[in-house]
Amino acid sequence: MRRITERLKNKNVTEHVYKIGALVIGFLFLLLIFATIRASFFGNLDPEKHIYFEIVFLLLLAVLAEVAVFYFRQQTVVVLMIFGILIGPGFLNITWDFLHSLNLPFQISAEAPVFFYHEEVIHLFAQLGAIVLLFKVGLHSKIEKLFSKENLLTALAGIVFPFVAGYFYAVLSGGSFGYSMFVGAALTATSVGVTVGILKEMKLLQKKFSEIIIGAAVIDDILALLLLSAVTNIVDIQGNAVASLIRVSVISTIFLLGAIVTGKYFIGYIDRKEMGTKRLLLSLSFMLLLAYVAEVINLSAIVGAFLAGIILNKSKNLAILEEKTFALELVFTPIFFISLGLLVDVKAVVAFFIPILILTALALLTKLIACGGMALLSKLSPNESLLVGIGMAPRGEVALIIASIGLANGVLPAAEYSVISAMALLTSFIVPPLLAYFIKRSTNLSDA
Predict the structure, then answer these.
(1) Is the pTM of this model over 0.85?
(2) pLDDT tens digit string along 362-416?
(3) What is the sign, positive or negative, of the torsion defined by CA atoms of 335, 347, 411, 362?
(4) Residue 209: closest CA among 59, 432, 392
(5) Per-residue pLDDT at 309 exceeds 80
(6) Where in the sequence is the domain holding 28, given as residue range(s)?
(7) For a Cys staple, 310 with which of 138, 189, 333, 347, CB 3.0–4.6 Å?
């Protein structure tokens, strides 16, 4: 009996020692984590090692966004873009200047923390996010409905009216000819990624108005490319606008028709068997190939990815393909929306607030009137037409590309570039809550 009692005592002592040891190790581990995070924010960490922190931090932000969505009942896309602004250099620098002006009783670092040293890596991940997002949307779309009469007319109206309005606004406000042409071109763009994120989250991709938004936005990108080519060559007197326009039109047509024809044979091959690892990798390679070619011919990688998706929509393995690519969407798509927030230059928005506000209002109204009006003429209900107009309003990365070309060519000074880029990003921020608000108040939305 005594031996048993001694063994129990020894066992209890051992358990206490293990518990104390575990607590000590756990505490030291938390200190190590804290020291590592502090060094990542404020220290001189090796840039090659910092990239791991940046990736983990972005993914944790995506998780935090899901929590915020649950508690604040906001759209995930909106929350992710707000997070992007809050951790962006513009907002952090203004915040740090404000904190230093308060003469706080405790000391803070002289400079604001830098979250991202590898902007090119973040940009790459964001591009992959946009590609995966549009590919998944393409998987829900039918190719025969892409170039419908409604989509073509909506896209055409969304090009002509915003360009004319933007050009004359810039001229009347004292802008140069080159600046006016690029303002008009920037207003023609449509960034479908933000709108698609909202429609996908609300499970409305199969509705008629969604089909028109997505189809018209893809056609819009093609037409905007043609217009950009013409504008660039008209502004540059040495360029031949007509020849460039014809060249871009021919290359775009060959790409679109060639991808569709080749895609039929590709689907025939992958459908011979079930979607295993080999066929999944081939499908992803097909998507990235079309995205790459589209980017090289200046048609935008997201157009190529969307085209790959609508081609693979015909596959009998569609459900398996969508299931197996969900992880890619989960990892990369949030980074795309966070990156849009990172691009916002808060100081530029404050410095040129009035011109940005006017141009943003013009950007929203021109798409709303042109695309919404054309949707109404296509026999959509007033509510659905309003949703089409709002859904076509984001300018996003497409307008940023147009503005960057104007800046690189010396046509746009830095201040005017800031105005256009801020407009492009603000429309991307305004549309998601606006679209969600009107969708919730719309009833009897017709199916595609």
Answers:
(1) no
(2) 999 999 999 999 988 888 888 888 999 998 888 876 777 777 777 767 777 777 7
(3) positive
(4) 392
(5) yes
(6) 1-44
(7) 138
Is 32 inside a domain boundary?
yes
CATH number at residue 406: 1.20.1530.20
Torsion of CA 14, 20, 22, 25, to 10 degrees: -130
- Whether residue 175 is found in the same domain as residue 316: yes
Instruction: Give me the number of domains the chain comprises.
Output: 2
**Apex CA 321: angle with CA 273 and CA 152, to 5°?**
115
- 139 and 259 both lie in a single domain: yes
Phi then psi dihedrals of residue 183, to 5 deg: -65, -45
Chain-centroid distance of CA 245 in Å reads 28
Residues 6+ apart with CB under 8 A from 414: 407
Q: Is residue 61 part of a domain?
A: no
Inside any domain, residue 54: no
Q: What per-residue string of b and e applies to 211-237 under the rule 16 or more CB within 10 Å gives b?
A: bbbbbbbbbbbbbbbbbbbbbbbebee
User: Hey, what amino acid is at 59?
Assistant: L
User: Across the chain, what does the average pLDDT equal?
Assistant: 78
